[in-house]
Amino acid sequence: MVERRRKGKRGPDDPTDQRAIEHRAVQLLSRREHSAHELSHKLEQKGFERDAVRAVVARLETRKWQSDARFADVFFRQRVQQGYGPLRIRAELQHKGVDEDEIQRVFEAEDVDWFALARERFQRRFPHPVDAADRRKEQARRMRYLAQRGFTGEQVRSALDSSLEDPI
Fold it and tell me: What is its main location (predicted)?
């Protein structure tokens, strides 16, 4: 089978050229923060050699151009603002290759009331009380919504209970 390349989408001339790798890495970092794992993965997808990529990313970390701590802080705050819960944020940070100690540091540094956030997301998404005819099915659907956003079972139950106590 013949492999065809798309026009304008070609790999690097020299996959070990550290200047080209650094140039591409800086372009990516100028748009937004990336974890070291995520940045390495993107550069390898572009066709650069793994060892050369790791050397460049390590150099960028030394210069403080790339920082997993800074990435974790920014990512955490964005996800909280978007209304995601602690379980999902932790899983996404792990998936992006952030060290568990760094994840724990971010969670401890930021003071988030997860119960209040769950209630706020719940009330925003479901402003109307549950109809008595579909109560069980609708409550299960509403609970699933918060669980998929990464809230714990306790936080989900608290949000559901508050909506039953304070009908809008």
Answer: cytoplasm
Distance of CA 19 to the CA centre of its chain: 29
Residue 47 neighbours by CB under 8 Å, 6+ apart: 11, 12, 15
DSSP assignments along 12-34, one per residue? -SSTT-HHHHHHHHHHHHHHS--
Whether the CB-CB separation of 109 and 77 falls below 8 Å is answered with no
Establish if 8 belongs to a structural domain.
Answer: no
Residue 25 domain boundaries: 18-62
Handedness of CA 122, 124, 129, 135 (dihedral sign): negative
Per-residue pLDDT tens digits for 91-131: 999 999 999 999 999 999 999 999 999 999 999 999 888 77
Number of structural domains the chain divides into: 3
